[in-house]
Structure prediction request, 956 residues.
Amino acid sequence: MLIKQPSVSARNTSPVSTARLVMQIMDKAGIRAELLYFGRNWVVEKGQQHETDNTQGQTCTTGQSKTTNKPLLEFPPIVYGEAKSKSNPHGKTILFYNHYDVQPEDPAKLWKDDPFSGRVEGNRIYGRGASDDKGELITRIKAVEYFLQATDGDLPCNVKFIVEGEEEIGSPHLRDYLLQYKDKLKCDVVIWESGYIDSKSRSVVSLGQKGILCVELNVIGPSNDIHSSHAVLVENPAITLSKIICSMVSQRTGKILIEDWYREVKGFSRKELMTIAQEEFDEEDFKRETGIKSFANNKTGFDAKRARVGEPTCNVSGLVSGYWGLGFKTIIPSTATAKIDFRLVPEMDPHTQFQRLQNHIARKIGLEKEGEPARGNKVEARFLTGEPGYRTPLDNPYVTPVVQAAKEAFNSSTISVSGAGTGPMYYFYEILEKASSICVGGSSISDKIHSPNENFQIDNLVKATKCIAKIIEKVGKL
Amino acid sequence: MLIKQPSVSARNTSPVSTARLVMQIMDKAGIRAELLYFGRNWVVEKGQQHETDNTQGQTCTTGQSKTTNKPLLEFPPIVYGEAKSKSNPHGKTILFYNHYDVQPEDPAKLWKDDPFSGRVEGNRIYGRGASDDKGELITRIKAVEYFLQATDGDLPCNVKFIVEGEEEIGSPHLRDYLLQYKDKLKCDVVIWESGYIDSKSRSVVSLGQKGILCVELNVIGPSNDIHSSHAVLVENPAITLSKIICSMVSQRTGKILIEDWYREVKGFSRKELMTIAQEEFDEEDFKRETGIKSFANNKTGFDAKRARVGEPTCNVSGLVSGYWGLGFKTIIPSTATAKIDFRLVPEMDPHTQFQRLQNHIARKIGLEKEGEPARGNKVEARFLTGEPGYRTPLDNPYVTPVVQAAKEAFNSSTISVSGAGTGPMYYFYEILEKASSICVGGSSISDKIHSPNENFQIDNLVKATKCIAKIIEKVGKL
Prediction:
């Protein structure tokens, strides 16, 4: 059972065994599958065999990632799958992009059950990854299997699979894989790893994704935690960290206060704005599911919708400093750390934005206002990961068949110009000859993606499988 | 070995066994010792015997703490010790105040050895509590033992001991104990739990302590950690917490920005200011020991000295929110928590200051400027502990003999109008008929009090014991 694999990429747990399980599931469905490794040489694994592919390896003789400049050691393999159409071999090719890794299950105590149980209760199957993305992956495989079994191994069009193991940590090596295997992965359209069902049970076909920049800020103060009676003379790293966070973002408006942050932000066309206006977003349902009373900056209606798909964010996902256990401890902590993720929109480059953040910190550290001398605490910003955003144009020729298929499978469908989340869509466009990506799938907000008690609704699993089958059918006719 | 007892009051570990060990050490030294418990009735433990003291119990029939209004259940006992002068029974009485509890040993990995080892290396004995306050306590007991053995059980003056088990968590029940046992504890002067040796090897006789207010701030946001792609609409509790911290204190000046915070602050007399100017404070040594490059607000010289003894502080001792482990997790945390300690100076009341803090939060939450509507995240402030500060006047009649004794034992001594730290000195003044307190002892800054690798220098243990003996001698002549 795929959900039982605790494939948490943040902790690099069991990627290879999970990838092999995916490969076996594909094999069983009739899809030719292999694992693509990435090391000193490129190694392709078929079934239980390993072989070294030196020809391809020569294109990466330095043993360094082209994206991160880090040595390429043992990071998770990619599962590649392929099934060719016999009756339509020169037709179009769909590439399904999915991932077998999951978010950490923390906080484990808030789960009603083991986070990797795969337990079925009523219409829901529970477990980390049930929805994001193991459930969606299975719908793709099952749809292909349906044709292969029904038509003695034939398919209306060619299909390929790329299933990576690092999506939840920002796909740091996907671009390298795409560069290396761009011929193998050549396709006409990419069907993305997920989609979602809105509160009116409509399938939302989404055409874009925000980018992301994840950083860690470390403030380094005294060499030890020291007695807090010295606070009158020793700058407190936790306070310095709070000041930096406050200087970066307005709590009231959510606006990011870092110089030039918005410089390259791509706006929306008139047609895109009209599409946004027609999108469904049930504010009350969202508030109920998340337990909040009002939206940041009291956004509502069209403003809320536009912000979700088009506004960059600055989010603090973690803080830690000093002593925070039972009781208290009167110390000045020696360090304070924050994990921060910035969502980016198309045309914003993560590396450029990181440089702007570093410039900001250099200017702001310890300052109440600019122009005053820098203070004692050292602040280090670490680049954890970054991806640009991307949006497929509304007039892309694959949009209509996908929307139609979704309508037939889910009874109703609608278009979103972009999701609020992040993924490596841009790299497919950049590397695979401008292949555009389209998101469609069966998750909904009540599935608690990334949260305790993540689940997938079983009737939506069935509908999503039907939807994929119809896409394969329609693309076969293009 | 007393240091081997992991008597961490923040975690309430082994208070009774540690108290019993202190009692046994006193017994062995010839000091009549007993444990004073505090429960439904007052129970006094002598040696291995227990007895219920119903007479005293009747004065506390509600079973509630007069200070905290909490039920009096199983908190740590006090060790009471007494040795009377045979030759001078109507002379003066010294009360030694010490504590057997210690700060948490965290972070344990920064200790070179087991934090409760009591290991001796060269001139130092290592372990949590080696200096603060088990080492100082032993010097008091040994000084009394010296007289009792040398003079066949006699002493120049009467001595009493009160050794509590909750000093490091702000002495939440000491005031109750003092109220209950005020007749038993009656004295002429209190010799405080510690003192310190400055960088010129002078014994610093300190006459005061700051007060403290410890609080926990909890910001409560969405009901679960939720996917950070929603950050455009959901207020982030970690950012709200940062904003509150920023609104409370100026990083540049250290000034507390809460309305009326300084209203009752007691200033210094001209004589006190002159004493402060004469105090030794080796700035370079302090920087070297703590690993900092410059002082907050670039304070130096007289300003730095005056700030240490007379300036209120706001210190963040801990932060925690969301995910801060390996890698990252793209979530909006559901909560964010800070532990904050405010040092207070004489005339500031912790409960009044806490009310001012609550008013501040109510006004400031979520606001960039006043007058705008409150936002979605809930903020709870919890009162963890509070104590007022106190300063013994420079002309108190016991100051001169103590300063003289310290000079004889340590070769050199000096007066400080107040330490930078906190203790329950005020309660002794309030309850024990205005008994003033004087701090003297053998710790120095290199002893790393409250930090990893805490230790006590053995030659200073010897000198501190001599100093206490000379105080007993001099007070016997008053």
User: Anything to note?
Assistant: The first strand of chain A starts at residue 32 and ends at 36. The first helix of chain A runs from residue 15 to 29. Chain A has a mean pLDDT of 88.
